[in-house]
Amino acid sequence: MAAPRKPVLRRRADPIVKKKIEPRQQVSLEAGGGRVIANDHLEVADRRLPLVFLQNKRARRIILRLDHGKARIVVVLPTRATRKEGHRFLLQNKGWIRERLELMPPRERFRHGAVIPFMGVEHRIRHRPRAVPGIWREDNTIHVGGPREQVSKRVENWLKREARRELERRAQVKAMRIDRTITGLTLRDPRSRWGSCTPEGVLSFSWRLIMAPRPVIDYVVAHEVAHLKELNHGGRFWKLTDTLTRHMESSRGWLLQSGPSLHRYG
Fold it and tell me: Regarding the domain delimited by 115-264, which CATH topology (the fold level of the hierarchy) does it fall under?
């Protein structure tokens, strides 16, 4: 499932923006992948950020995206657009970039003392050097035993295990409700999709969903399970999804506004 997109204005002709309009109308926070055609840097708000130009044959317009995970700016170009046109578009929206950077929280590593969300609730990581190597959760604390240099990897692996357990449990229950079978479930770390479903019944989810609030997790699972019966985004699909979760609209809004921030952890 692709992360929800903000509405944007579609331009019929040349992808170059000849008249500046509000970034809210012309800039999307989400974008698919593409072929890297150039790397650069941009000075903005007293920061020097990596800048990457991607060319995506499916793109119909120039798109700006802030990559929270890598703290970089991404410019996605349609096939007909040039890097020069993309750079012009970038400079026209430099103010939008500055505003978004001010809202972008810093990267948070999985380390002793760090605060990370677990099912939407903040938890503090505590390293226990004298404890038996392992990891356990108590109240709002994630305890990690063993050598300090293994804390980050142990926390990430634990989050992935918890994600698989939670996602599998919810998916199986919902699949039974619509009399469908899940043939496989995988965890990945995509930048612009929270889940997907194949025609063969294999579900795939971002492991970072375990850091999202429970209602959001439930919605994403419902969305992908609904694809087991309706492999499209038509009216029947949305009606079915709505029967599988009580949190569809609010969760779509949360993913749009707060979802990208999950990529800053780890």
Answer: Zincin-like (3.30.2010)
